[in-house]
Amino acid sequence: MRLKMAQNSLFAVLLRSSWWISLAVALVVVGASRALLPSDYWVFGAMGAFPFVVIAGIALVRQLRRPSERQVQAILERVRAMNWREFSQALDEAFTRDGCRVERLEGGAADLAVTRGGRTALVAARRWKAARHGEEGLAALHAQMRERDASECTYIALGELSANAQRFARTNNIKVLQEDGLVQLLRALPAR
C-alpha cells in the first residue's frame, strides 16, 4: 500500500512553499521550547523542529532542481511547436528516463500506458495543444482506465480546462498535467 500525503496538510503546504519558511518554523519551535519549557527539558521540545528541518531540505532540493523561468518558456515554446509524433516521442523518452515502461496505445482516449512499480497509468496527450478542454476527453480516459483496470490516469493539456472538466478530474482523481507539470516532465528536452 502506497501512502499519500494529504494535499492541504501542513507538510504538503510547506513542501510547496519556499524552503526558508520551513526553516523559520523550525527556529520558532526551538525558540518556543527554549522560552516555555524548563531548562532540563527544552531540548526534548526542540526535537519537534526536526521534521521541519527535513521538509526545508527537501523543499530546497526541489527548488534547486526546478528549471528557471527562461528555461520554462523555452520548453513550452518547443512543446507548442512540436507535431504529435515529436511530442509523443518526447513523452516516451521522459517517462522512460524516469524509470517507467511505456506502451503506445491505438484507438481510445489514452495514448500511452506507463508502468512503474507494478502500477499502470493511462496517459491522454493527443490534444495537448487544444485551447480549451471539456469533460468528454476526461470521461473517455476515465472509462478506458476502468476498462483496462489501470491504477490511475493522466490528462496532458496546455490549454485551460472547463469548470466541468476540472470538477470531473477532481472527483475521479485524474491527474491533469499542465504547463508546470509538463515542463517538469520534459525538463531534459534539448533546445533547438
UniProtKB/TrEMBL annotation:
One of its GO terms (molecular function) is DNA binding. It comes from the Bacteria. Signal peptide: none annotated. It holds the Pfam family Mrr_cat. One of its GO terms (biological process) is DNA restriction-modification system. This is Restriction endonuclease. Residues 80-186 form the Restriction endonuclease type IV Mrr domain. The lineage of its organism: Bacteria, Pseudomonadati, Pseudomonadota, Betaproteobacteria, Burkholderiales. The chain crosses the membrane at residues 42-61. The keyword Secreted does not apply. Keywords: Endonuclease, Hydrolase, Membrane, Nuclease, Transmembrane, Transmembrane helix. InterPro entries: Restrct_endonuc-II-like, Restrct_endonuc_IV_Mrr.
